[in-house]
Structure formats: C-alpha cells, structure tokens
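Recall from the previous lesson that a structure prediction takes nothing but the amino acid sequence as input. Here we apply that procedure to DUF6460 domain-containing protein from Methylorubrum rhodinum. The sequence below is the only information supplied.
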Amino acid sequence: MPPGQGGYADPRTSAPRHRSALNRFLGGSPMAVAVKLLFLSVLVGAVMAMLGLTPGLLFWHLYDLSRNLIDLGFETFHDFGRWVLAGAAIVVPIWFIARLLSSSRER
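The prediction returns the following tokens.
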C-alpha cells in the first residue's frame, strides 16, 4: 500500500491491513501514545517545578497578556477616533464651504 494510505503490512500474512480509526486519530496504538504522553508530562512537569511555575500561574499570565493586548488595541482605536474627529472638525467645514461656493457659481 502506498505511503499515506493509512495501512501497514500484517507480519503474519504480509497482506496490507488497515489501521483502526482510533489508531489513525491518536497517531499510533493507544498504549504507545499513553506512554509517550506520560513521559512528556513528567519532563514538562519537572521543568515547570524547577522554574517555579504552576498551570494556574501560567493561565493567569496568559490571561493578563491577552487583556493587555486587548486594552492596547482599544487604546489604538480610541486614538484613531480622536484623530478622525480632529481632522473632521477642519475638513468637513472646509468641504461644506467649498460645496456652497461651487454650487453658487454653477447657477
């Protein structure tokens, strides 16, 4: 069977055998995936413990970061709105006067 087709050879019969949907989803047998995840969890947990990090602390740091980014975005829109209003206070009256003068010349 060509690579990427989701099958492998059965060692007893040498015939291609299709992998189960669970194996395809997990990327291997459930036991092998569980052992890999356990090993990685121990490594990551040890590094986090050495750095003094906890999942809750990481969550609150991510929460604070997202709030700061959102606040920064709103401040940018607030500044943009002030620029639009300041410019409009000059541009719109000049445009209006120009339209009045041009319409009076067309008559």
